Structure formats: C-alpha cells, structure tokens
C-alpha cells in the first residue's frame, strides 16, 4: 500500500546585523533543492527563507501553516556558538524589544498571537515533541563527529523565538526550532544538513506514532489514549 505524502515546511532567515551570510538560509536552500527522499522517501519539503523582520515573519509563518497544512514545520536560525546545534524546547510571546532589520519592533513588544497577560510564564509554550528523546537519538547517530548537541530553554527574544512562538501557537505538537552555528571544516554544511534531515525523520516518527494512537482511540472510544493519558 502506497504511503501518503508527508509535507514538511523548513524555514530559515536572511542576513541581519553582522550575520551577512546566514547559515540557516544556505541550509534551507540546500535541503529544499536536494529533498529528503534519501531518509524519508514519502516526504516533500517546502523551503522558505524569511527576512529578519517581525511583520514578514508574522505573515509568512501563519501563511505557511494555513496554505500548506504541513505535517511538520521546522525552523532554523543562526547562533554564534561554534560547532553546537541546539534543539529549542520552548518560546515566549512577549518581550520583543530588539529592533529588526527594518528598525521596528512588534506593537507593545509582543507577538499578536500572545495572550493578554504580561506574565512570561503565561505566554510561554513548550514544544509537544519529546525533545530529550530527539537529543539522545541525534547524539547517538552523529557520535564522533566533533559537533555538540544540546537542549535549550532559551531561544532568545528576537526573530528566532518570535517565529517559533507563532508555530507553537498553530500546533505545538508538530513544530520545532533548531539553532545552528556557522559552518567550518568540521561542522560543514553537508554534516549539518544531515543532522537536520535526521531531526525531521525522528520528529515525524513521534508525530506519526501519536497520530496513530489518536486514530486508534477514536475508532475504539479509548478516551485515555485519545488524550495521551
């Protein structure tokens, strides 16, 4: 029986401040061009590079969710820590005081999708994927590659966190943000592309397993399975 196509949305960012050559842009273009059929044969990737501007991110991220109804959305962004790839566990919808490339901030320094509260904990959303499980798996797959993998609870308070928050509001169980470093002779674009592809595969395994349990619960009336109890 032919497997249904899985639709993956992959985003990165253009240049900003001193980051004139954003590695997330290069990675999105590379993976979108190559596809991921080598690791996930029934998947199609839609790549999108977004300018580092709050209004552009607002429009682009929500449009990607509404237009494509993806199975999984994975956002990539640059960070300055060499040879370290970070899986982000959460994001917050308020406190965006840093100006973007248009010298603007969001109105009231908050994402339009954030709640009315000014309390950070009430505007924080955690990713619904098992990020610890993802971390252990990629550490095992890429052991000996001289690249570190970490879980992070601090995606910053700039466009990376902003984009992640929007996706978490759309569906926290089907999105992820990964911070990547600059490329060098060890942490090459090919290696990081392989890492991102594996993270996509591992994330989709979790998503499909959960979907299967929910479908089974609906068919059998098992409320405990339906609500993940």
From TrEMBL:
<dbReference type="GO" id="GO:0005829">
    <property type="term" value="C:cytosol"/>
</dbReference>
<dbReference type="InterPro" id="IPR016125">
    <property type="entry name" value="Peptidase_C15-like"/>
</dbReference>
<keyword id="KW-0378">Hydrolase</keyword>
<dbReference type="InterPro" id="IPR000816">
    <property type="entry name" value="Peptidase_C15"/>
</dbReference>
<keyword id="KW-0788">Thiol protease</keyword>
<dbReference type="Pfam" id="PF01470">
    <property type="entry name" value="Peptidase_C15"/>
</dbReference>
<comment type="similarity">
    <text>Belongs to the peptidase C15 family.</text>
</comment>
<dbReference type="GO" id="GO:0006508">
    <property type="term" value="P:proteolysis"/>
</dbReference>
<keyword id="KW-0645">Protease</keyword>
<protein>
    <submittedName>
        <fullName>Pyroglutamyl-peptidase 1</fullName>
    </submittedName>
</protein>
<keyword id="KW-0963">Cytoplasm</keyword>
<dbReference type="InterPro" id="IPR036440">
    <property type="entry name" value="Peptidase_C15-like_sf"/>
</dbReference>
<dbReference type="GO" id="GO:0016920">
    <property type="term" value="F:pyroglutamyl-peptidase activity"/>
</dbReference>
